[in-house]
Amino acid sequence: MSRTFTQSPVPATPGLDALDAVTVAAGSAPDGVQAVGYTVAASGDVPAALGLDREALSRAGFEGKPGSVLALPSASGPGVFAVGVGDDAPTGAALRDAAAAFVRAASRWADVALVVADVGGLDAVETGRVLAEGVALGRYRYAVLQSDSKHVPLERVTFDVAGFEGTAGADGGRLADGIAAGLRDARATVVARDLANTPPGRLTATDFGTVAQELGARFGFDVELFDKAALEGLGCGGLLGVNQGSAEEPRMIKLSYTPHGEATGHLGLVGKGIMYDSGGISLKPSDPMHLLMKMDMGGAAAVLGAFTALRDAGATARVTGWLMCTDNMPSGSSYKLGDVLVARGGTTIEVKNTDAEGRLVMCDALVLATEDGVDAIVDIATLTGAALMSLGQARAPFFATDEALADAVSAAAESADEPVWRFPLERKYRSQLDSGIADIANLGGKYAGATTAALFLEHFVGETPWAHLDIAGTMQSDSDDSWRSKGATGYGARILLHTAATFSR
Ligand code: BES
Ligand code: MN
Ligand code: ZN
Prior knowledge:
Bound molecules: ligand BES, manganese (II) ion, zinc ion
Shape: elongated
Strand content: 15-25%
CATH superfamily of the largest domain: Zn peptidases
Radius of gyration: 23 Å
């Protein structure tokens, strides 16, 4: 379909462009710096440079709580900020959030420095990583469609960390390594946010394929695009069924990363790429929540984001990604309730609700991944409202059939501060998916919707170890909060990146 004049082109990944433009270094605050933050714990010493003691800070309402920032008046020189970190031995997550809160409080300034008094037990690499992630993610904003945006992108950030001074010493060098790692990890998240924030009319499945090709060429992975005819050839009846009502072509986007040297294993990543979810014939009722359905490709965006960082992370496994992209639209040609789709591999699926489309596009990819002989599959999808209802916007439910894979996902989630909680695959509910006419139905009962969706997906993975992340709740934030920025959060990109970077069979 040709784009109308109202959909003038904008940069596909403005957040990535902003990340390319910022210099982040270790060292003392340089001449000309516009704002300097000093970390302050909830107890213990207050940095002398603030010129205030704890009592004075407290009178101003600043207690050193994590995420709190106090701007201090200064007649001349750079702006000065007290940046709360809570515990005097802060965790990586607390430091990441403090860095994010600081760059938000100093939003007027492009050249900022953060002086970190105490990093507790964190080593130099971990410190650099979380600080760089914090500033890059905290300052993120999707502003390309605002003609009069006040957003000031960061140009230079300097981290002065007690104990890891300079860049010459061993620890200083390791701090710089950590900063590079943090910018790389932030890239995964920022790419995922950019794509999920893009309005649906400006990012079709076809556009998504083009963006993937550009990113693949730049960040060292191969991209193969499957159009409608190719999908028909593969028998991907799930993706094709959902696409039936759309004026736009579907795309399956296959990503391939090959490590140098012998691969330690082969990991498959599958992402739901519903470019816009109207519900189809089972049309969603009017509800502000449905404004968010442009983000129903957040899973595919997280996979693509993770791929942009695999080479720089030195991932030693082979990683293959399948992004299942189409919108879900009602029209005269839409798939209907009662239709029976035939997925890749021959499973027949009775459609009982066209709004349960995510599982239909995913199942073809899960079969293709098993056919490729991957050692494990991790899939990610904005799959069910039930995920949002059960754990809210801060933590994502996940399911797994394999203990080692579940542990790897949990560890990755911890390291990224993208919290997850493992749900049981309650097989007692599997019969809710029985169909009187086909092998399986796409709709479960009234309760445990995240579980019945997971049980549907499990049908297609065979014996391959598998984990499934439902990010319907966590894909979006209503406000700037910790490392999350208002709008798409890019949730899961760093979980997938860390899982893939350390994967071995
Ligand atoms: N994309 C939605 C799930 C969703 C809901 C994502 C809220 C983000 C925020 C999904 O395709 C959907 O419509 N799921 C239905 C499934 C139901 C019909 C079985 C749901 O959860 O209501
Ligand atoms: Mn839906
Ligand atoms: Zn959906």
